[in-house]
Amino acid sequence: MGSKWAKVWPPLMAMIAFLLVWQGAVFFFRLEKWFLPGPAAVVQEAISIWPRLWEHTAATIRLTLLGFSLGALTGIIVGGLLHLVKRVKLSVYPLLVLSQNIPIIALGPLLVMWFGFGLLPKVLLIILVCFFPISVAMMIGLANSDPRLMNYMQMIGANKWHIFRRLELPHALPYLFSGLKIAAAYSVTSAIVAEWLGSSKGLGYFMQLSSKGFMAPRVFAAVLITITLSMSLFGIIALAERWIIRWQPRKEGG
Amino acid sequence: MTSALEVREVHKRFGRGGAAVDVLGGVSFAVEEGEFVSLIGPSGSGKSTLFQLIGGLEQPHKGEIRIGGQVTTGQRGHIAYMPQQASLLPWLTVAGNVELALEVAGTAREEARELTGSWLARVGLESYAGEYPHVLSGGMQQRVSFLRALLTPRSLMCLDEPFGALDALTRMQMQQWLLKLWEANRRSVLFVTHSIEEALLLSDRIVVLSASPAVVIRELRVPFERPRSETLWTDPEFNRLKQEIYAQLSQGEPAAR
């Protein structure tokens, strides 16, 4: 228990110090709320409009979870298929990398134009953003299994399916989870962008509305919630990883 | 009677043109049914290459390999195998690893489970059945690895320097353990080793390879009665044979460059 606290203390202290400096600066320089609100004002504002804020938060959670799950599924399937069919990998992989260089700020309005203001373009945007790190992580994991184990499997005459199912796939799981963690953070921010671009609900919409109305405390409250969402999703995936990958010797504090 | 394994005039060359290296220069030998044959040779004499050929991972340049009388040159899935490193899959339990080897060889899942359970108990590993391999010591891992090969329903067991990575004491214990198990369950075994003592202690016959390009320079029947034990080391005949093989191996070595 003692060692756990030793790890939690330093970042916690830094966080508290940061908040104090922030609050202190706002107080000392007499900054206006619409210009830069202090953390206390942000929390106060969040509490006072909580029912509305929660409605928007719930919409963002729904959109994020839907987009992330579909994106993860797409990523896993694409990664697996590209690994199994080498020829497809060679031809499609560069195209995938290329697709990742399209700025989502350009892609978003196009998707809205093609698919309207409903759920579909937003979900598509999140899928497009988060399938890529997942499929890349998956492919790297699948392609890099231990050569000694691979030699053993081949020597005993294991077929392609046995090798995939028993050697490559389990080996790829830790890689897959790294990909999922990255994609989790991406999916929350893409949901915000999607809502910003065309929506009547969600934190992205709420942020846009508040910032146009010079209501900085509300923007900050929405940012705070976004960070919390992102970190929660990350945490859930880390927990799932610990629960699924049980064969590794536990690292200290890992 | 057909041999468990027949290697006929096998040549293997790596590379092309001027850079080509002959690794095997026409190797021939056989392992009879229920016989324990050791393959010994200077390092770099192509023993591992020979195993890759027998396992079907590589094609010989010339020559033929027969397992149980059938030509299996370049075909996989005819042998039970124990590599130098235990190579247990880290995400499978001890029992899971043994079961996997049986499943790959075509044993039904239920049967594999039963067989694994009863054998783990027989060799005193039942308390580790549900553990992941990383909690086991090197010696324990090799026991699981050997059991996995022993239970695989294939007529030939190929053991590739299975004790090479163990410390001297563990190695001696493992030799005794393997000797006892094998003498109780005579399987056809091809055993690669660097250790002359190990070969003499365990095998019925020893095949001595030359340095590369490898050819068989000697085949010798080990005359000791079974069951054997470590007291063999004090036998004068044991030491005489050891000297003899040692001399032959040094001869097979090319002169210092």
Automatic annotation (TrEMBL), chain A:
Residues 57-237 form the ABC transmembrane type-1 domain. It comes from the Bacteria. The chain crosses the membrane at residues 12-31, 63-85, 92-117, 123-143, 175-199, 219-240. The keyword Cytoplasm does not apply. GO terms for cellular component: plasma membrane. It is a multi-pass membrane protein. The keyword Amino-acid biosynthesis does not apply. It is found in: Cell membrane. It holds the Pfam family BPD_transp_1. One of its GO terms (biological process) is transmembrane transport. Gene3D superfamilies: MetI-like. Keywords: Cell membrane, Membrane, Transmembrane, Transmembrane helix, Transport. Belongs to the binding-protein-dependent transport system permease family. This is Nitrate ABC transporter permease. It comes from Paenibacillus abyssi. The lineage of its organism: Bacteria, Bacillati, Bacillota, Bacilli, Bacillales.
TrEMBL record, chain B:
The keyword Nucleotide-binding applies. Gene3D superfamilies: P-loop containing nucleotide triphosphate hydrolases (3.40.50.300). Residues 5-236 form the ABC transporter domain. Keywords: ATP-binding, Nucleotide-binding, Transport. PROSITE patterns: ABC_TRANSPORTER_1, ABC_TRANSPORTER_2. InterPro entries: AAA+_ATPase, ABC_transporter-like_ATP-bd, ABC_transporter-like_CS, ABC_transporter_ATP-bind, P-loop_NTPase. The keyword Protein transport does not apply. Signal peptide: none annotated. One of its GO terms (molecular function) is ATP binding. It comes from the Bacteria. PANTHER family: ABC TRANSPORTER ATP-BINDING PROTEIN, TAURINE IMPORT ATP-BINDING PROTEIN-RELATED. This is ABC transporter. It comes from Paenibacillus abyssi.
